[in-house]
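Hi R.,

Here's the chain you asked about this morning:
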Amino acid sequence: AFVQQKIAEGACANEADIELIESGAVDEHANSCGMQCVLNGTDCTTACMTEATGVSEECAGCYAQMIACSAQNCATLCFADSEGEACRGCVDENCNADFEVCTGLE
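And here is the predicted structure, written out as tokens:
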């Protein structure tokens, strides 16, 4: 079985991944993959993101960890309104620092 490694560093800081992220494709699929995999954990989300967007597995893993963090810390706020200020504030406070380290992007 795949063992969850510690947070990667700079996993998305390469030309191919940056191009996909800037195109909006990655963010577009993060929510749908997150919802699709809500009960199946980060491996499911990583695979979904990689398949849906073509982003590298390491980079997709950052998004998967971000989604898991959001679900763990902010589920009640984000379930009601995933675009709302309360949800975004919670995610910023609890998950963004690790996500930035993981992706290598700010």
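One quick note: Residues 57-80 form the longest helix (24 residues).

Cheers,
M.
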